[in-house]
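Supplementary Methods. Inverse-folding protocol.

Structures were first reduced to a discrete structure-token string of length 237. This string, shown here, constituted the complete conditioning input.
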């Protein structure tokens, strides 16, 4: 006798949004139960005093458990095949979340924010404010970090390029200063992961010749940021 496939149950049949108290069917209850018990794993590949500090800071603010793996950039650990499988770009930070490797610090910050930050009120819910958060994360890397890196690469070799990069960092700091003149934190009244991510780059800028001091509001913001315990933790070797 041919075996007939069991009819497929749809989610709608077992859960009515107008009766949220009605118990879920066994199947869906099981899915949620398993999800609740799932032990997430985060492995953070980093090097001290590098771009990875931004990710380290974000992880510390979120207070999620994670494992740290130090990459010795000077010894070129980043070129080892095992690491290149995770990050073909050969750079830190790299984050492995439940077996999926993610690189680029801005992408990692957005991913961590979306995954763990909303419930902790450290990252916006989906919607326009989330778009604003992503805007500043991308701006940090594509505009600010890029200009700082360009200046560092060019300063002893290409005078003209170094001068251009220097001017660009100044222009970007002025934009940041105007933004922070109207609000205490990047997204408004409340500290968010965007402040931590961007703060790591602004703090680094100060170490390589771009202090925030001429920009009153940036300097005040940075002062508030660097007094956070997560700042100290993320700047440990
Ligand atoms: N755009 C990348 C930049 C990462 C980056 O440049 N990392 C440097 C350390 S600051 C690195 O790993 N360098 C090793 C190399 O280039 O070999 C990000 O934001 O994650």
């Amino acid at each position: 006798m041919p075996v007939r496939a069991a009819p497929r149950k749809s989610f709608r049949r077992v859960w009515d949004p107008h009766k949220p108290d009605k118990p879920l069917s066994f199947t869906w209850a099981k899915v949620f139960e398993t999800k609740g018990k799932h032990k997430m794993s985060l492995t953070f590949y980093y090097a001290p005093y590098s771009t990875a500090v931004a990710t380290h800071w974000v992880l510390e603010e979120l207070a999620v458990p994670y494992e740290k793996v130090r990459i010795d950039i000077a010894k070129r650990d980043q070129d080892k095949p095992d690491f290149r499988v995770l990050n073909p770009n050969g750079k830190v930070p790299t984050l492995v979340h439940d077996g999926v490797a993610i690189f680029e610090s801005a992408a990692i910050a957005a991913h961590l924010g979306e995954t763990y930050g909303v419930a902790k009120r450290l990252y916006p819910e989906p919607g326009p404010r989330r778009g604003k958060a992503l805007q500043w994360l991308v701006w940090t890397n594509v505009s600010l970090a890029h200009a700082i890196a360009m200046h560092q690469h060019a300063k002893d070799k290409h005078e003209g390029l170094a001068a251009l990069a220097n001017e660009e960092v100044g222009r970007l700091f002025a934009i940041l200063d105007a933004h922070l003149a109207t609000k205490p934190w990047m997204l408004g009244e409340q500290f968010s992961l965007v402040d931590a991510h961007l703060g790591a780059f602004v703090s680094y800028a100060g170490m390589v010749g771009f202090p925030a001091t001429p920009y009153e509001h940036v300097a005040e913001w940075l002062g508030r940021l660097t007094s956070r315990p997560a700042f100290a933790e993320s700047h440990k070797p």
